[in-house]
Protein backbone atom coordinates (compact mmCIF):
# COMPACT_ATOMS: atom_id res chain seq x y z
CA UNK A 1 0.00 0.00 0.00
CA UNK A 2 2.91 2.25 0.69
CA UNK A 3 4.11 1.83 -2.89
CA UNK A 4 0.74 2.66 -4.37
CA UNK A 5 0.56 5.83 -2.24
CA UNK A 6 3.98 6.87 -3.44
CA UNK A 7 3.00 6.11 -7.02
CA UNK A 8 -0.20 8.08 -6.71
CA UNK A 9 1.65 10.97 -5.09
CA UNK A 10 4.29 10.86 -7.84
CA UNK A 11 1.58 10.98 -10.51
CA UNK A 12 -0.13 13.89 -8.79
CA UNK A 13 3.14 15.85 -8.56
CA UNK A 14 3.96 15.09 -12.19
CA UNK A 15 0.50 16.16 -13.30
CA UNK A 16 0.73 19.43 -11.34
CA UNK A 17 4.25 20.06 -12.69
CA UNK A 18 3.10 19.41 -16.28
CA UNK A 19 0.23 21.88 -15.79
CA UNK A 20 2.58 24.55 -14.39
CA UNK A 21 5.16 24.09 -17.13
CA UNK A 22 2.67 23.72 -19.96
CA UNK A 23 2.90 27.41 -20.90
CA UNK A 24 6.70 27.47 -20.84
CA UNK A 25 8.51 26.32 -23.94
CA UNK A 26 12.23 26.11 -24.62
CA UNK A 27 13.21 27.42 -28.04
CA UNK A 28 17.03 27.32 -27.88
CA UNK A 29 17.25 23.56 -28.30
CA UNK A 30 19.22 23.69 -31.56
CA UNK A 31 21.66 26.27 -30.23
CA UNK A 32 22.35 24.22 -27.10
CA UNK A 33 22.99 21.13 -29.20
CA UNK A 34 25.36 23.06 -31.48
CA UNK A 35 27.37 24.28 -28.51
CA UNK A 36 27.34 20.96 -26.67
CA UNK A 37 28.21 18.76 -29.64
CA UNK A 38 30.45 20.70 -31.96
CA UNK A 39 31.08 19.07 -35.34
CA UNK A 40 34.45 17.46 -35.85
CA UNK A 41 36.99 18.81 -38.30
CA UNK A 42 36.07 16.06 -40.74
CA UNK A 43 32.36 16.94 -40.52
CA UNK A 44 33.10 20.65 -41.05
CA UNK A 45 35.31 19.84 -44.04
CA UNK A 46 32.61 17.58 -45.46
CA UNK A 47 29.97 20.27 -44.97
CA UNK A 48 32.21 22.86 -46.66
CA UNK A 49 33.02 20.50 -49.52
CA UNK A 50 29.35 19.71 -50.15
CA UNK A 51 28.21 23.33 -50.34
CA UNK A 52 26.07 24.29 -53.28
CA UNK A 53 27.60 27.03 -55.38
CA UNK A 54 25.27 29.30 -57.26
CA UNK A 55 26.23 31.59 -60.11
CA UNK A 56 23.93 34.26 -61.41
CA UNK A 57 23.39 34.14 -65.13
CA UNK A 58 24.18 37.81 -65.83
CA UNK A 59 27.88 37.96 -64.84
CA UNK A 60 28.62 34.51 -66.25
CA UNK A 61 27.12 35.36 -69.63
CA UNK A 62 28.89 38.75 -69.64
CA UNK A 63 32.24 37.06 -68.95
CA UNK A 64 31.59 34.54 -71.71
CA UNK A 65 30.66 37.32 -74.17
CA UNK A 66 33.82 39.24 -73.24
CA UNK A 67 35.95 36.15 -73.79
CA UNK A 68 34.27 35.63 -77.17
CA UNK A 69 34.90 39.26 -78.13
CA UNK A 70 38.56 39.11 -77.13
CA UNK A 71 39.01 35.93 -79.14
CA UNK A 72 37.18 37.35 -82.17
CA UNK A 73 39.26 40.56 -82.17
CA UNK A 74 42.56 39.10 -81.06
CA UNK A 75 42.72 36.10 -83.38
CA UNK A 76 42.94 38.08 -86.66
CA UNK A 77 45.55 40.39 -85.12
CA UNK A 78 47.60 37.41 -83.97
CA UNK A 79 47.33 35.73 -87.36
CA UNK A 80 48.37 38.94 -89.13
CA UNK A 81 51.43 39.30 -86.91
CA UNK A 82 52.56 35.71 -87.48
CA UNK A 83 51.89 35.63 -91.21
CA UNK A 84 55.43 36.69 -92.11
CA UNK A 85 58.65 35.14 -90.94
CA UNK A 86 60.88 37.33 -88.72
CA UNK A 87 63.21 38.03 -91.63
CA UNK A 88 60.33 39.28 -93.78
CA UNK A 89 59.07 41.65 -91.07
CA UNK A 90 62.14 43.86 -91.23
CA UNK A 91 62.53 46.54 -93.84
CA UNK A 92 65.21 45.49 -96.33
CA UNK A 93 66.14 49.11 -97.06
CA UNK A 94 67.80 49.54 -93.66
CA UNK A 95 71.55 49.39 -93.95
CA UNK A 96 73.65 48.53 -90.92
CA UNK A 97 77.17 49.73 -90.29
CA UNK A 98 79.62 48.44 -87.72
CA UNK A 99 81.77 50.79 -85.67
CA UNK A 100 84.05 50.25 -82.72
CA UNK A 101 81.20 50.85 -80.30
CA UNK A 102 78.53 48.68 -81.97
CA UNK A 103 76.23 48.17 -84.92
CA UNK A 104 74.00 51.07 -86.03
CA UNK A 105 71.46 51.96 -88.69
CA UNK A 106 73.33 53.92 -91.35
CA UNK A 107 70.78 56.78 -91.56
CA UNK A 108 70.71 57.17 -87.77
CA UNK A 109 74.50 57.09 -87.54
CA UNK A 110 74.89 59.75 -90.24
CA UNK A 111 72.35 62.02 -88.49
CA UNK A 112 74.18 61.74 -85.18
CA UNK A 113 77.57 62.41 -86.80
CA UNK A 114 76.20 65.48 -88.61
CA UNK A 115 74.60 66.69 -85.38
CA UNK A 116 77.89 66.48 -83.47
CA UNK A 117 79.93 68.05 -86.29
CA UNK A 118 77.72 71.14 -86.47
Compact description:
Keywords: Membrane, Transmembrane, Transmembrane helix. The chain is mostly helical and 118 residues long.
What does the model show?
Keywords: Membrane, Transmembrane, Transmembrane helix. The chain crosses the membrane at residues 55-78. This protein is mainly alpha-helical. The chain contains 6 helices and 2 strands, in the order H-H-H-H-H-E-E-H. The protein has a domain at 88-117. It is 66% helix and 5% strand. A two-stranded antiparallel sheet has the order 1-2.
* Overall shape: rod-shaped
Distance between the termini: 136 Å
Indicate the structural class: mainly alpha
Q: Tally the helices: what do you get? A: 6
- Give the integer mean of the pLDDT values: 83
Transmembrane segments: 55-78
Keywords: Membrane, Transmembrane, Transmembrane helix
Key traits:
two-stranded antiparallel sheet; single chain; rod-shaped; 118 residues; 2 strands; 5% strand
Outline the secondary-structure elements.
Layout (H helix, E strand, L loop, with lengths): L1 H20 L7 H8 L4 H9 L7 H25 L4 H4 L6 E3 L4 E3 H12 L1
Antiparallel strand pairs: 1-2
